[in-house]
């Protein structure tokens, strides 16, 4: 962990960039003093912000560009015309080997398209996935895909299982993480063809994965498994449904505490405990969606996040680099394909 | 509302049946004294429970059968061998016109299969949907499908929109409910083919529906629209993810209040306000998944519910009957198909 790591930063991505980005890097720098940053964006706006924090300034280099990807830009349009944007140049720094990973709070679709185009896929992986961490009753769970692929076949789901399992081992430090496939019921007969075929592969292919079987929506927050695998359509909707539910609960609670004098007094006594609940379910702590399966580390910070959230996204990128995530994935994918070709040979032998 | 309504009850369905069922009917009877019940199940077990409550007993008739559908029975197996079960007989009472609707807390898959087989579909509806109510920041939202169909095409989604819209008008009493299609983003380009085609139909077919467009997972609890339409795979997972998230939040809160003396004192002052939050997010209030699109009213109560939840499911069935839900659906489906054939004629005229 003490070796110097360089992370490239899209300094113009996010609703409150570049101010939020620089504030976030300042918080990250306190926690991770060994990390250096390449900042891509408008020098005239970044430099004065950076000059306020000499300690941070000392580990940053600014790479000037006036172009930035807007929040409503279409991914195809960015691929055609965005090569001088801060986002593209930041991703390209990883492809050129100048940075070990990239962090952007910009347009998700554009960042995924540019990352796929510039970094390419890891050998043997068909599609990238967006992975994120969920708070659970037991701790935390990694879930993927959160929206990179709206249509997924069984093979994609199996690859997501491999990528998620390695993530749980490499970054969360779990020895034998359990993996579950998200479904509408836990019985074998339930679900669509993709999840049924993927479950059969995960169960029978001899992959070194502790496959729990199907899990349901309520198992995500219950922490039933360490890794929840699903397609990007369902995963994105589950993630946002959970966010909306937390907001509903918090709103009801706030209204409840305002509604009577007794409740207001109660709040004064209980506020420290309530603050801890807020911290534990704070979405900013879980900020930083990892783009897995690419030939390079890319982390998407939430577009509307603040400095605290951005600092956590930077921390996630550094974690992925420090734990050699992509090298591990490469090895596991070789295992997967070896297991698959063995299964194919065995099946052929049985004919 | 004062006319006598008869509801048939699967007295043996649910984890705590028949005790929970009878207790639930007793609560329902206080609220809905004009409703009569046909109880299907084991007379030797039901009769002694009923005798304790003479007022309720007076509006009930027991129809004896010793057979019951177990929680783990496969729907196909129940279709083949379950014709003497309490569930089947209760559904059949609706088909024979003896009851206006049926309520069961038994096996969901079996109840859907038996209801489809015995009641048949409403003319013009391709597939039934399971609909439920969600609490939102603004009030409540109806969402469907919650799990009847794991694979849905665009036509199914359009039919769900019609059924949900009529539900919101007939049962929730909304004049012009808004309808949204659940998707991974609100832009027209996002999503899979089914949601994109369904959105185009809802926008352009001239149906008398206030179509809002796409909504995302966080819009469900935000109450952005009155009706959220989705396929049964996504809907089931969103529902259970929301339930799991509420449970996580409530657990964190409980732990928070136990953790220090100050918090315990705070709880004493605030408990009335906290109780109101609990009531507002109590899943039992939203108990009663409506099976829509069938030629008869069928309501599924949660298998693990208590008497309070079961009473609410009975209330839902009575509401659907009282508001002539199925007659309204029949008329709307005629509109839908008239609009479709007009669109087809117009399109043919343009060739």
From TrEMBL, chains A, B:
The keyword Transferase applies. It is found in: Cytoplasm. Pathway: Lipid metabolism; phospholipid metabolism. Homodimer. Probably interacts with PlsY. Keywords: Acyltransferase, Cytoplasm, Lipid biosynthesis, Lipid metabolism, Phospholipid biosynthesis, Phospholipid metabolism, Transferase. InterPro entries: FA_synthesis, Phospholipid_synth_PlsX-like. Its EC number is 2.3.1.274. Its main location: cytoplasm. Signal peptide: none annotated. Belongs to the PlsX family. It comes from the Bacteria. This is Phosphate acyltransferase. GO terms for cellular component: cytoplasm. The lineage of its organism: Bacteria, Pseudomonadati, Pseudomonadota, Alphaproteobacteria, Rhodospirillales. It comes from Magnetospirillum moscoviense.
